[in-house]
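B., you asked whether I could sanity-check this one before it goes into the benchmark set. Here's the sequence:
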Amino acid sequence: MNISVFGLGYVGVVSCACFSREGHRVIGVDIEETKVNLINSGKATIIEKGLEEQIKDSVEKERLTATKNFEEAVMESDVSFICVGTPSLANGSINLAYIYQVVKQIAESIKGKDSFHTIVIRSTVKPGTLKTCTEIVEDISGKKVNEGFGMVSNPEFLREGSAMKDFVEPPYTIIGTYSEKSESVLKELYGSIEAPIYCIKPEEAELIKYANNNFHALKISFANEIGNICKEHQVDGHKVMDIVCKDTKLNLSPYYMKPGFAFGGSCLPKDVRGLTNIAKKLDLETPLLSSLLVSNRYQIDRGLELILSAGTKKVGFLGFAFKSGTDDLRESPIVEVIETLIGKGFDLKVYDSNVHLSSLMGKNKEYINSHIPHIYKLLKEDINEVIEKSDVLVIGNNSKEFKEILHKIPKDKTIIDLVRIDNELTTSDNYVGICW
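And here's what the prediction gave me:
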């Protein structure tokens, strides 16, 4: 395949080397003559293990050249990768000027091109960038998207020092596009790489790189704060975190990685408070750990705002305990929401088969009687009664019965889902998801 790569910095030059190694003909494009000359003389523009050897080999085999002539590069290629920088501005937002500059160059170049051209944004960009770039290309080229050209978001996952290896051994390949033709082009291009390919919406693809990198930053900060607490107790922080990472059932797994409502129960809130208190007594700063309950509080407020914005005071709750399959009401975030609505004079109905059946025994009987007797009076035994007498229905946990009855809820009632009871649903019509 004939490929043009715009931007001969870190991502661009690695892409040039790896695509040409696979036998594709690659044209690197950059405004800096020094970089162009380096590539054409078989040298790398950055230091990276194995990179210069591959560039030298590809140049000698005439699979790789570089130029400042963007029009020539576009006309001689089927797909253009945009790998230019997106640096931070003073206020923290990203500078997309280089992206737009290259997109305009490509748009101008495909004006006189008869064949279909695929434009791929490899750089890290904010959600909606591909949409804006599509409009720019349509306006300048006069061509219609998905007919004369296709746009793709294809974020990279390269680490400095192991980029050549990461290119051919990525965790996955992301193809974010609305163009079937461009999707096929990228599937063919990455066909030799043994990694799953996920074809998703461009906006989803644009957010994935940010989610990944912020998660990495989160993990580093978390480990450092735990390590600081460990050291003050004369404990080896590496040993503690090594064991934490051995748990692939909960700790390093997808289990807690689904967006939804706030956490609750008898363990998490208590232990977050406990550890931050330990750090405080040691005069240690734990900005990340100390933010957990603040963030959790925000998610409760966000759920509450969705209910208040529905514009009715007749609200029914399906699910009362903090998660399905349990009768534990201690620090249930749903309880906080219900108590707030009671204070605002809402007409509430609550259904939870687990809580109702178990409420006459054990710790929950004591908790209900001493902490939330006013809420217990709102409990109904019949789920249909709650549905019938409510204008808004809030799904508070992912009990199987709530998914089964979902399609029976009349369309004139608003459903606010805090747990994503059905993975196929996203906010539309009378259905509102808190994070989807």
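One thing to flag: The radius of gyration is 27 Å. Otherwise nothing jumped out at me.
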